[in-house]
Amino acid sequence: MHPHLWYPFTAAKTAPTPLKVKAGQGVWLELDNGQRILDCISSWWVNLHGHSHPAIAAAIAHQAQTLEHVIFAGFSHDPAEQLAEKLVQKLPGDLNRVFFSDNGSTAVEVALKMAYQYWHNQGQARSTFLAFEGAYHGDTFGAMAVGARSLFNAAFDTLMFAVDTVPFPATFQGDETVAEQERQSLAAIATQIDQAPHAYAALILEPLVQGAGGMRMCRPEFVAQVVQCCRERGVLVIFDEVMTGFGRTGDWFACLKAGVQPDLICLSKGLTGGFLPLSVTVATETIYQGFYSDEPQKTLYHGHSYTANPLGCAAALASWDLTTAAEPQFQALAALHHQGLARLRHHKGVTQCRVMGTIAAFNWVTDQPGYLNQWGQWIRQQAIAQGLLLRPLGNVLYVLPPYCITAAELSQVYDGIDKILAQAPDF
Ligand SMILES: *Cc1c(COP(=O)(O)O)cnc(C)c1O
């Protein structure tokens, strides 16, 4: 470990020394010992078009020589305006007010504050939120509060506001219980809201795929029914598409795939193609109008120093064009994932295979589920030896590659996983 660095999500005393990366190109990372590693997880799910993509690099360089940053209160600029226009055009319905911040957690904080204050501005004190079991929405306090209570946030338990939760109907290929699970989940939402019709400011959901919770997938119809259930009961809906945005689920956004419009949507990870930290919270016109007033106390008093950073916006605009060009990959990768998973199914530990657009996952049968299980740690180490960057979530192994990965490279990924699984000891 470097003597002056504190690494994220890292138990420094027991973790292996971080691998030093010298360069990245396409799906490949090059370590300083010369080894090449295929980035199967898009570096924590942010990279869409490969590392060091020249078009995004050039857009950032050009913007840096024009206007690197300016305060975004009282001032505006082209990159932010153009990006907002593109987002609004692509997002469904009247999701047309774009608020910038810096990462997924802040995008969620902003959505929670918008939903909460929207009611407050109308003289309604709605005291809490509805969320899904197993959810992950980020590491700041509000985002932690609406996420699942876990090892990650146990130390802060008493500081987090209380949230009511409902079950998430996670499904997989060959699952026969999904319809019943969905029915129970929808019934739980309806019951919770009906018991306290004015208690909930909003329901927050990772639509189609719960990411950090273990790449748990649900059906598009379920997402649509959740929105309908909340709308009928006057509860706002927040889609946390920080991970699912920009093609990940097979369409530009999970809300488009499910054919529904939330009241607020949070986007971040893929926004700049993985180059710079940037996020947006996009609100409907109705929400925006709830703040549009002569009374100063109705303003959303929230902002960050680097709000709408022009370099980030320029990267996002360049990434936008590349994403448009990569649209055929959203579906093509799904087909390749299905083939790849089919090759792994003969391992007796492989269970609950699932694919959603560009994301594939399965569970490994183990006696010790949970984030800290030995199998996941072992896979990480073995993967590096095979030239793969894999990072299981507990006993869940997933592949979430940049869209520029070739069929041959993805095949190589599944070959590597196949080899690793063949040597897996019992955990
Ligand atoms: C990663 C993630 C976040 C948090 O984003 P950060 O940029 O890490 O703060 C929030 N929600 C979801 C669904 C995520 O996957």
Automatic annotation (TrEMBL):
GO terms for cellular component: cytoplasm. Pfam families: Aminotran_3. Pathway: Cofactor biosynthesis; biotin biosynthesis; 7,8-diaminononanoate from 8-amino-7-oxononanoate (SAM route): step 1/1. The keyword Cell division does not apply. It catalyses: (8S)-8-amino-7-oxononanoate + S-adenosyl-L-methionine = S-adenosyl-4-methylsulfanyl-2-oxobutanoate + (7R,8S)-7,8-diammoniononanoate. The keyword Isomerase does not apply. Its EC number is 2.6.1.62. Belongs to the class-III pyridoxal-phosphate-dependent aminotransferase family. BioA subfamily. This is Adenosylmethionine-8-amino-7-oxononanoate aminotransferase. It comes from Prochlorothrix hollandica PCC 9006 = CALU 1027. The gene is bioA.
